[in-house]
Amino acid sequence: MKKAAAAAIILVFLGAACARRSLPGGTVRDAGFDADRLARVSTVIQEAIARKELPGAVLLVARKGKIVLHEAYGDSRRLPDRQPMEKDMIFDLASLTKPVATAASVMILVESGRLSLWDRIKTYIPSFVPYRDWFGKNGEDARIWHLLTHTSGLPAYAEPEVAAKACGRPCPPSALAEYIAALPKDNPPGEKFVYSCLGYITLAEIVRRVSGLSIDRFSAENIFEPLGLRRTFYNPDPKISAQIVPTQILDGKPLLGIVHDPLARLQGGVSGNAGLFSTAKDLAVFGQMLLNKGEFRGRRIFSPAAVERMTSIYPRTEFSGRGLGWDLGSDYASNGGDLFGPRSFGHTGYTGTSLWIDPDTKTIVVLLTNSVHPEDKGTIVPLRARVANIVAGAIAD
Question: Cα(250)–Cα(198) distance, rounded to whole angstroms?
């Protein structure tokens, strides 16, 4: 009997500890929302599902540190059979990997003095060739901050099959980084914004060369584990496949727990541009940590100075509308809608995921979908903006 009682007490404490890892719930009105206005968001999502713009979605809205809306809509998959969406399911985040894992890891190294934003990329990857003009003259060397702001001159992407022929399949991340380093640069560094997955693959390799840890291990040990994000990881265990939302069907089977992005798949699922999986609740904790200036429940991940730098438009590339990893005002920032203020920031993922954070109203909007299921024909961009506008327009205080 005593053993059973002790076990029960331990379970209570463990449950409390786990609960503290996520944001608490709160009422819509206490959080300062007009309940009727906020309720419109469910209708808009359901109408988009009816138009077959996406099979299903999970929406989480938090304000002032509390979750006020967390709902699932539609189906998690349509093929090979139909399964309903559940609000705690795990999604392939696609390019949300860039700010949540890669840029965050880079900034941790910057804060620890092991890296500087002004370091030349070739300091860590000596084969990184500079931009060459029409006369074959080398331009200036690109810096770390150029990679973070998508202004390094790198192309947007690389043909996976061509890269596989050069690097092998699976391709070691270091080999792909060397392949990218040798590519001709399209523009001088700092002169043009070109959203580049290749830049973030390069950043992940720099993290590995500086820290000795691959991007999945570094981000887990320095970000996700300290925050208690137990459902945020690369390469999910096949044992939890029932909890994962599938993406596109390839070769007759849905990608389930296997990253959708081809270059990330080429590297075995671990990459700086994509590969991270997570849930709406975990992303809400990450967002609240940023709203708290780098700290959550006694665990500090970043200094306030680092958060301010990451989430502000980088002064040397104001034309880009980008911070260090985060989007504030580029052409890709439609998920912020039209009403949130100029200090709000976020990011999207190709699979249909998005996160938007507004420090002025202390609001977090997480919209996770798998709009690429089953045939990569969904359209999610208009819905993201409508959801953000409804949430912002429902703030009444």
Answer: 23
147 Cα distance to chain centroid:
16
Residue 5 has pLDDT above 80, yes or no: no
3-state secondary structure of 336: helix
State the residue range of the domain holding 159: 117-211
Clarify whether residues 205 and 220 are in a common domain. no
CB 200 within 8 A of CB 176: no
Domain end call among 156, 191, 211: 211
Residues 193, 320: Cα–Cα separation, whole Å: 5
- Give the CA angle between residues 344, 349, 351 to the nearest 5°: 145
Q: How far apart are CA 322 and CA 330, in angstroms?
A: 6
| pLDDT, tens digit, 9 for 90 and up, residues 64-117 | 999 999 999 999 999 999 999 999 999 999 999 999 999 999 999 999 999 999
251: left (phi over 0), alpha (psi -120 to 50) or beta: left
pLDDT cut 90: percent of the chain above it: 93
pLDDT score recorded for residue 21:
75
DSSP string, 343-362: T-EEEEETTTEEEEEETTTT
Of 96, 377, 378, whose CA–CA distance to 234 is shortest? 96
Question: Could you tell me the CA-to-CA distances from 325 to 150, 169, 312, 370 in Å, in that order?
Answer: 9, 28, 10, 22
Q: How many domains does the chain have?
A: 2
For 350, the token pair is 């190709």
* Domain end call among 211, 238, 269: 211
**Nearest-10 crossing angle of helices 173-181, 160-167:** 110
